[in-house]
Design a protein that fits this description.
The chain is an alpha/beta fold and 259 residues long. The chain has twelve helices and eleven strands. Strand 9, helix 9 and strand 10 form a beta-alpha-beta unit. Helix 3 runs parallel beside helix 5. The radius of gyration is 18 Å and the shape is globular.
Amino acid sequence: MKEVWCRSALTSSKLPGIDYSLNPYVGCSHGCVYCYVPSMLRKSREEWMGKMAAKRNIPAVLRKELKSKRKGVVGISVSTDAYQAAEKKYELTRKCLLLLLKHDWPIDILTKSPLVLRDISIIKKFSEAKVGFTITTLNEESRCILEPYAPSIEERINAMKRISSHGIFTYAFLGPLFPEVEEKDVGQWVEILVDAGVNEVIIDNFHLRGSIWEEMARVLPEEKKRIYIERIKSKYYEKIFLRFQEEAKGKFAVLRAFM
């Protein structure tokens, strides 16, 4: 992991409900095959993983920006995972959280890592805080294929339970929801998410930008490859979302889709 110096910490965001994005790291160690960030930056997945860097001075830059910028919701992180493995060593996310807490800026954390549990005592002190976990599949075999270095699904669900048990607004981001979920399986998904105590569920489909499908096709077994491409190109996600609406009625504060 290299160390770099950044000029800015808070970047304006166009995501719904997010005013700024805060990304303490460049690149991501999870190695998700479907990640569209490298294609947006015109980099290959190998470059994205091979040139990971810690923004060593981001707490100092953030400290200055918090005094001059208009207060708004800070999304942590948008283009990488703020709780990837490097955070254990650098603790940049933790340091930034402490600064944001000092000014009590609202935060929205999205991660695949149970490392976020380390910072529960800080997150609980915010007047407004959300913590989301990306859950793309309940099939660990599929997770290993498309998210090879990310924490297991079981670890994420257990972490989600811990976060919600502390009274922190917790959400599940099913994005991209792997298109191997059958309509009959949705009830099981809802049961698991209700048991985890989530307040909100967001569903998203695959965004096949750049060479993403080519990269996925290289690692998916033939049968999965056929099912995936057929469903991604059909109205599959609309049907799944409607089924979620039926099964989850009255069980979550919010259920929405990015499609």
